[in-house]
Amino acid sequence: MLTDFGIILLFLIISVLFVGAGLVTAALLRPSRPNPVKNSTYECGEHPWGGSWVRFNPRFYVIALVFLVFDVELVLLFPWAVVFKDLGWFAFLAMLVFFAVLVVGLAYDWAKGYLEWDKPSPQTPKLEDLVLPKKIFHKQQKDS
Questions:
Q1: 89-112 vs 59-82: helix crossing angle, rounded to 10
Q2: What is the pLDDT at residue 118?
Q3: 48, 40 in Cβ contact below 8 A?
Q4: Closest of 143, 69, 134 to residue 101, by C-alpha
Q5: What are 55-77's pLDDT values in tens digits?
Q6: What does the angle CA 96 – CA 99 – CA 101 come to, to the nearest 5 degrees?
Q7: Is the pTM of this model over 0.70?
Q8: Nearest to residue 80, comparing CAs of 68, 93, 63?
Q9: Residue 69 DSSP SS3
Q10: How far is the C-alpha of 117 from the C-alpha of 34, rounded, in Å?
Q11: How far apart are CA 73 and CA 67, in angstroms?
Q12: Cβ proximity of 63 and 114 under 8 Å
């Protein structure tokens, strides 16, 4: 007779075997016709050009994280709404605090422009902005 941990171990072994059998079956049955287009890197709608070690715009990931935050909010909101009458005022105030934190986060994202989908035009720095003007530079040299 198996103990409780033995049953869990048995389920673990069966699940690993089930996943392994699925992967082996898929590897044997799928067609393998690689070409350069299939082997190219594809990431969130960006065209794959240039090297892979370049700076990229993380806007896609930020929007995905904001989506996940509100998705988790809905997952927590549905069970809370079902038993709302039984929970009382404390649960209502706790949910108000939860909403307030999420609204502050949404306002922050909105203020920072993280929710804007259009790409802003790149701002290239000018040499005049990076170097001190000559009058200030000469004044600092005289003072020292």
A1: 170
A2: 67
A3: yes
A4: 69
A5: 666 777 777 888 888 888 888 88
A6: 110
A7: no
A8: 93
A9: helix
A10: 34
A11: 10
A12: yes
